[in-house]
Design goal:
Largest sheet: 9 strands, antiparallel
CATH superfamily of the largest domain: Glutaredoxin
CATH architecture of the largest domain: 3-Layer(aba) Sandwich
Shape: globular
Helix content: 10-25%
Number of domains: 3
CATH topology of the largest domain: Glutaredoxin
């Protein structure tokens, strides 16, 4: 498959070799489209501010993209932190090419034309989805079934919001209600999500598409009192373990262990994460900001990275890129690489936990080395009120732990 990716890039660039100088991407707003299953279009909007900078928009989120390479009449756009990239030819109409994630051997057809219209609207909205929605994905599959909480706000035809699950949120979703049809999408370089559904009598029935490799049904009913299970009761230490422990290498090859002197008599947060995970990125940004605003020598954060990467070298290069991009000062260790999307495989690296249900998961350990709390998932800024509540509780609990005597 690696040979195929190399051939694809080489072919696109070779076709362009007749040009003596490269073409530049014109300034302005573009409507990008990823082709998913059922002939559905997954759209997102980006703006070219100059030839070396693009902004991707999802509701209130703006993603700055500044890793752009030109070759003749082709362009490579590498999204920040994540491995995914777009390679396309620049034409009179816009862009034509592919969105590629090499580690999972995925290629999604991509195109873009000048426009600032994410979804077209043919009819005024006959339904309103504002409120909280009790949601079940893949309800007829015992293996795939999971629950969620939809949180949406509608203004005329326009809809923004997200789905919260027990493992995190689907980040910033943006779309429309067209008559009785709901369309929502997001793209950030890792997530490429489309939700397409019908609304009838306060029930939403539809399908969720992730890239062009995944499709599942979902159903939601309006329920403004609905809440998900407490994220602090989902992951815990097994009964035959009294302590949490780890021992993994950093980028220099040194083995870092919880028994090291640097962690003794300190409050330690152990973040289970991956550089490929958008919720992990949101959480890492929050931790970086917290440490900057609340310097405390009695608090240590260490991240254990489970990487979707084919080699150790690739895994460490992605860890370095993440640390550089968002200025992480705490250690990020490589816990595992390869097929870590299978959480059962990843869980073997941390056998004291009942399971790894979600990336991210954070273990709060007090100064005596006792696990005081395990928080599964992360509800980021797209969840609005829930994110504010999380920050307040996080700061309260960490202050309590840091003020305790050793």
């Amino acid at each position: 498959m690696k040979i195929f990716f190399t051939f694809l890039i080489f072919t696109i660039l070779l076709i362009s070799c007749k040009k003596e100088s490269y073409q530049k991407l014109e300034k302005g707003s573009y409507r990008a489209v990823l082709e998913v299953q059922d002939n559905q279009e997954l759209p997102f909007i980006f703006e070219v501010t100059n030839e070396n900078e693009i902004n991707i928009f999802n509701a209130d989120e703006t993603i700055k993209v500044d890793e752009i390479t030109y070759k003749n009449d082709s362009i490579i756009i590498k999204t920040p932190v994540y491995e995914g990239y777009i390679i396309a030819k620049i034409t009179k109409e816009g862009l034509k090419g592919s969105f590629i994630k090499e580690s999972v051997d995925r290629i999604v057809p991509f195109s873009a034309t000048k426009s600032n219209n994410r979804f077209s609207v043919k009819e005024n909205a006959t339904e309103n989805v504002s409120g909280n929605w009790e949601t079940v994905f893949s309800q007829n599959s015992e293996e795939e079934r999971y629950i969620a909480k939809g949180i949406f706000n509608q203004n005329n035809n326009k809809v923004t919001g997200t789905f919260r699950t027990t493992t995190g949120d689907y980040r910033y979703l943006e779309g429309v209600v067209d008559g009785d049809s709901l369309k929502l999408s997001t793209f950030d370089g890792a997530h490429a999500f489309l939700f397409s559904a019908k609304i009838t009598n306060s029930i939403i029935n539809g399908f969720f598409y992730s890239g062009n490799h995944w499709k599942e049904p979902f159903v939601a009913k309006l329920n403004n009192t609905y809440e998900l299970p407490n994220e602090e009761n989902l992951t815990y230490l097994k009964e035959d373990f009294s302590k949490f422990d780890f021992s993994f290498p950093d980028q220099t090859g040194n083995i870092i262990s919880f028994s090291d002197k640097r962690f003794q008599n300190k409050v330690v947060l152990v973040q289970i994460m991956g550089t490929w995970c958008p919720n992990c990125l949101d959480e890492s940004k929050y931790y970086v900001n917290y440490l900057q605003e609340n310097p405390n020598k009695d608090i240590e954060i260490v991240a254990l990275a489970f990487e979707i990467a084919k080699t150790k070298e690739i895994a460490f290069s992605r860890i370095k890129r993440l640390k550089d991009r968002i200025e992480i000062k705490y250690s990020v260790l490589l816990a595992d690489f390869g097929n870590i999307a299978d959480k059962k495989i990843a869980q073997k690296k941390l056998p004291m936990l009942n399971h790894i249900l979600s990336y991210p998961t954070t273990i709060f350990i007090d100064k005596k080395g006792t696990v005081r709390k395990i928080h599964t998932g992360f509800n980021g800024p797209a969840t609005g009120k829930k994110f504010i509540e999380f920050k307040q509780e996080f700061e309260r609990f960490l202050n309590m732990l840091s003020n305790e005597k050793e």
